[in-house]
Amino acid sequence: MGTSQKEGLASSSDAAPIHRFYSRTTWIEGAAEEQLDLVSRLAGVSHVAAFPDLHPGKYGPVGSAILADRIYPQLIGNDIGCGMSLFALDLPARKLRLDKAAQKIRVLEEPWHGDPGACLAADGLPTDLHPVALGTIGGGNHFCELQELGSLSDDCLLAGTDIRKGDLMLLVHSGSRSLGMAVFGTVLESFSGLDLDSTVGRTYLAAHNDAVRWASLNRRLIAERAARALRSDLRLVADAPHNLIEEHDDGLLHRKGAAKADIPLVPLAGSRDALSYLLVPKADRPEALASLAHGSGRKYDRRSMAGRAGTTRSDRDGLIRTSFGGHVICEDRQFLIEEAPNAYKDPNQVLDDLRTSDLAQSVATLKPLLTFKKAVNRELAAARRDKHGRLKDRRAKR
DNA sequence: ATGTTC
To answer: Is A143 labelled a binding residue?
Structure first.
């Protein structure tokens, strides 16, 4: 927990109710519970929902939804609009050559060469809104994953959709890149919250809303780039942001790593070596604040992963393969280790908690075939070579 | 999370 939050956040004596949608045996870090208690005491907070993927964040617990009478930008942080978008490909799994697809999807390592102005305008955004990063995935836990849809025992729910067992899907996890960071940078010290009726509050929320739409467009462009490389059409199945503020009748709803669930279908991402799930949220659970878990949730923070994954050569080699016979494309070894599957909780426990809490039904499994995370930035690599006359060896720094 | 960490 940052000291800045303890010092800077206004707190009231009476805490808002916290609804926890996980069992007593679910693994939740103590620091996350402390953050949950802290946000429940923030001035103007009326309700908090906590999901089984809960884990500590920089300013607040990731995996929570918070209803307040004012705007708390630091609860959302820099990746405004980050989320998961799921697309169905018009390409049957039986026609897929995984090794060839792995080469084709590398188109995502290049900058996007489309027409940003036209895409931004078509989505009602200013044509000059941060075009430079559009169509790119970014780093950290962001990815573009090719998956095969599998059915569950209850086929009735799938029958209500236009997706079927064996369909190839693209799940894109990305956000607003450096745009959201710039927007957050304008209100960094707003620890006591912003009034919606103030100029700074309105200005922030307008810029935030643009970043949310920019992030959604970004995920679609990433999927379109991948689909084009695979010579396939695609259609949107779900667009589920999990890091944003929404104006609701009863207040400002902050989702911090909690998926927007007032939509028909919500993807629940597993780690790259676990199944993801497609969920149908239950509509009649107001205490869940129209939200759901957004994934497995981290078990270990990034810094502590150095000794937990990639310590031996065979372990490192294993990081680019999955137990489903799939591949991981990520040339940044740091990311491979920080985002190793064992950095995450068991998505099946998260799913169990959501079902036990009666928040959602699962309608399909999503098996990872190809996970594109990040390729080496060639320009940056070249710059480093020029400066040092050789490639930096990260190991030498330790 | 981030044209990051010279």
So the answer is: yes
